[in-house]
Amino acid sequence: MKFKKFFQSRKKPTITKEQALREGGYTREDGSNLSPDGRILLNGPAVLDEVYQVPEGVRFIFDHCFCKSVVKDGKTCRVIIPSSVVYIGEHAFDGCAINIVDFVSSLQNNSIEVKKM
C-alpha cells in the first residue's frame, strides 16, 4: 500500500526505533510502542481488535509499523488515523491483517482499502 502521493513531501523522523525505546519510549496497554514524547508510533499492537485508533497527537507512523499485527479472532480490522499524522512510513501496513485505513482529516479520500498481494 502506498501513501506517497500525500506523504512524500513530509520529513520522516530522524530517530530509529531502537533509539526511541532506549531514550524512554514506552509500551501502551494495547502493546503498541510510542516514542518518549508520544509523537511517533513505532509499532502497532501485536493483536488488533476490529477497530484500532492511532493515539491523538501521533505525528509519525514508523516504517513497517503494523507489519506483524494480527487481528483477534481472524476478523477484519479498520485503523483510524488522526489528523495529527503527517508521515506514514514505507511499508507501514505490508503483511498485516488490516483491511481499511481511515483518515480523520481534510484529505480528499478519507478511507483507503488495503489490498492484499
Helix-strand string: HHEEEEEEEEEEE
Poorly predicted runs: 1-9
- What's the structural domain tally? 1
Going across the major beta sheet, what is the strand order?
1-2-3-6-9
Backbone CA Rg: 13 Å
Tell me what portion of residues adopts beta-strand conformation: 25-35%
- Give the CA-CA distance, first to last residue: 9 Å
Instruction: Tell me the structural class.
Output: mainly beta
* Shape field: globular
Number of helical segments with 4 or more residues: 2
Largest sheet: 5 strands, mixed
Percent of residues in helices comes to under 10%
Number of E-type strands? 11
Instruction: Tell me, rounded to a whole number, the average pLDDT.
Output: 78
Can you characterise this structure?
There is one protein chain. The chain is mainly beta and 117 residues long. The protein has one domain. It is 9% helix and 26% strand. The protein has two helices and eleven strands; from the N terminus they run H-H-E-E-E-E-E-E-E-E-E-E-E. It has helices spanning 4-7, 17-22; strands at residues 26-27, 33-34, 40-43, 47-48, 51-53, 60-61, 70-71, 78-81, 87-88, 100-103, 111-113. The strands form three sheets. A five-stranded mixed β-sheet has the order 1-2-3-6-9. A four-stranded mixed β-sheet has the order 5-8-10-11, with no helix packed on it. A hairpin with a 7-residue loop joins strand 10 and strand 11 (111-113). It is globular and about 35 Å long. The chain starts with a helix and ends with a strand. Residues 1-9 have low confidence and may be disordered.
